[in-house]
Amino acid sequence: MEERGTTERVLTLLGLLQQRQIWTGPELADRLGVTPRTVRRDVERLRTLGYPVHASQGTGGGYQLGPGQDLPPLLLDDEEAIATAVSLLAGAGGAVAGAGDAALRALTKLDRVLPTRLQAEVRALSGSVESFGGGRTPVDSEVLMTLARACRDEVEAAFGYPSADQVRQRRVEPYRLVASDRRWYLLAYDLDRDGWRSFRVDRMSDVSARTWRYRPRPAPDAATYVQEGVASRVYPHQARFLVHAPADTVRTQIPASAAAVRERGSGRCEVLSGGASLDFVLVHMLLLGHDFEVLDPPELGSRCRELAEKLLSAATSPLDGR
């Protein structure tokens, strides 16, 4: 018990040194509830572990954690490692320019310096998650971890999932976790329906990894499959357009969950979207302000001509009383 208490106290000391630039010995002793002599011993323990703790005398002096290139492994417990990894992965799918790459770099660094015991857990997340968009509905990190482990270990997963007015049990071969601009999804092969499906993680219940291993089968691109499902397949009507504008420009105008935008070269892109009605989808395309062509469905081209005639008629009709 004494060794455990010392370890926890040294970790607390390290946390304090990271919070503020400089601490006096009496301040640290008061925070830790020990004597200044014990503080000096704990500082030596940190130095032995490789942390560069500097001490200065006189007015304004005290203990300071200095920069170092060869720090020992991060001292994180399991929950802290999981929470950090999930937060970084969420940032990797963020909408802030540059934040995604920075989060992925930070996650890579975290994986390198974590103790071996925790590296496999974090790799389970980093190796099983793809993303598009950013800022999403929070989900239980333990559920994410369970699904990520199942993806990594290639074992079946089971969970309850709402269907119509009841919750049904689903058995799947999990492939990838995908973070959209709103939610987390699992791309998996549904064993009961014999096909690829995407599932919202926040709608799952009683998630568990099973003991049955599976041999991976050819799979679609995870992020593309889920995004196209969110943007179009969930709606009763889908449409494809060829837009005469760069894909990067159109992506800034349409949320990732509202349409899938594919590069088509020569300053053009293809947009796949869906809605409760084709008129609704058509109006949104019109409001983008770019020239475009209808690719699918064929009847939408006829509808464009009908609406164009009505708009032209409205624009050329004389005003009442003039």
UniProtKB/TrEMBL annotation:
It comes from the Bacteria. Keywords: DNA-binding, Transcription, Transcription regulation. Residues 6-61 form the HTH deoR-type domain. Coiled coil: none annotated. InterPro entries: CBASS_pafABC_assoc_protein (IPR051534), DeoR_HTH (IPR001034), HTH_11 (IPR013196), PafC-like (IPR028349), Tscrpt_reg_HTH_DeoR_CS (IPR018356), WH-like_DNA-bd_sf (IPR036388), WH_DNA-bd_sf (IPR036390), WYL_dom (IPR026881). Transmembrane segments: none annotated. SUPFAM superfamilies: Winged helix' DNA-binding domain (SSF46785). The keyword Transcription regulation applies. Pfam families: HTH_11 (PF08279), WYL (PF13280). PROSITE patterns: HTH_DEOR_1 (PS00894), HTH_DEOR_2 (PS51000), WYL (PS52050). Gene3D superfamilies: Winged helix-like DNA-binding domain superfamily/Winged helix DNA-binding domain (1.10.10.10). PANTHER family: PROTEIN PAFB, PTHR34580. This is Helix-turn-helix transcriptional regulator. It comes from Nonomuraea insulae. The lineage of its organism: Bacteria, Bacillati, Actinomycetota, Actinomycetes, Streptosporangiales.
